[in-house]
Amino acid sequence: MVKIEQSLCIGCAKCVKDCVSGVLHIDQGKAAVRESCMQCGHCVAVCPVKAVSIPEYDMADVAEYDKDSFTYTPECFLNAVKFRRSIRSYKDRRVEREQLLGLIEAGRYTATAVNTQSVSYVIVQEKLEEFKAYAWKGWLSYADTLPSEQADLKAAIYKFYEAYQKDPRQDRLFFNAPVLLVIATENSWDGGLAAQNIEMMAVAEGLGVLYNGFMVRAVRQNPEAAEWLGLSGKNVCCCLLIGYPDVVYQRTAPRKTADVTWK
Question: For the whole model, what pTM was predicted?
Answer without folding.
Answer: 0.94
